[in-house]
């Protein structure tokens, strides 16, 4: 009994009874699965996505990387990489942000797209189950069109844009969440509209099944290209924090 008492005293000194683990501000999602492409590319294959979020009382850092690859019996039919990064500095009534995105799409209407923007955002709705954030601000876009027979050596399109975004999240119940992000980029020469939706259902613990739909409309595209690209994904998702 004396020996147990001697061992217990240092243990309570090192770990007080009211000790709590410090909050973890880091969150990550990793998903992969099957995809169906329609539009400029028609194929089925696999895709992957990684999302990292670091959220503190003063700022939020978020980075996302997406990869899509498909091939048939003869050649590669789809190859796209998308890297996004956004930094939000929190204010009393909202936040200011800086954002950058790079897209490399070998078979898209535009093979390389660089977009940078900044502006102001706020939470229009923020309840326990529903959240709606709105963003607006100026930016700059660089587009490299795909080679065509009429224009085998196209010139890059560069222009100032106005970017607006609405980010919606609805927690249907404890294990099911629906997300929908709508982004519009308005420029003097071209306009784009992007809708990114996801339905996530938790299977067990940190594993979930996710259905995603990504639709992008580009008003002006090279000859022979379609204005709308759609990617539908069926993924297994793992979340850790």
Automatic annotation (TrEMBL):
Top-level taxon in the UniProt lineage: Bacteria
Protein name from the UniProt record: Salt-induced outer membrane protein
Organism name: Shewanella mangrovi
Top-level taxonomy: Bacteria, Pseudomonadati, Pseudomonadota, Gammaproteobacteria, Alteromonadales
């Amino acid at each position: 009994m004396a020996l147990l008492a001697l061992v217990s005293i240092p243990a309570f000194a090192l770990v007080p009874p009211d000790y709590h683990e410090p909050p973890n501000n880091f969150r990550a999602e990793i998903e992969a699965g099957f995809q169906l492409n329609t539009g400029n590319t028609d194929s089925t294959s696999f895709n992957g996505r990684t999302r990292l979020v670091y959220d503190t009382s003063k700022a939020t850092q978020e980075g996302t990387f997406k990869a899509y690859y498909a091939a048939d019996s003869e050649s590669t039919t789809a190859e796209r990489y998308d890297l996004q990064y956004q930094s939000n500095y929190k204010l009393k009534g909202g936040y200011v942000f800086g954002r950058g995105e790079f897209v490399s799409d070998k078979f898209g209407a535009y093979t390389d797209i660089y977009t940078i923007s900044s502006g102001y955002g706020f939470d229009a709705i923020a309840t326990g189950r529903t959240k709606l954030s709105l963003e607006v601000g100026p930016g700059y876009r660089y587009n490299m069109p795909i080679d065509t027979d009429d224009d085998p050596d196209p010139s890059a399109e560069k222009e100032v844009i106005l970017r607006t975004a609405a980010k919606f999240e609805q927690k249907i119940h404890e294990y099911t969440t629906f997300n929908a992000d709508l982004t519009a980029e308005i420029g003097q020469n071209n306009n784009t509209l992007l809708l990114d939706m996801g339905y996530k259902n938790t299977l067990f613990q940190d594993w979930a099944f996710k259905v995603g739909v990504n639709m992008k409309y580009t008003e002006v595209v090279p000859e022979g290209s379609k204005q709308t690209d759609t990617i539908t994904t069926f993924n297994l998702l793992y979340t850790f924090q």
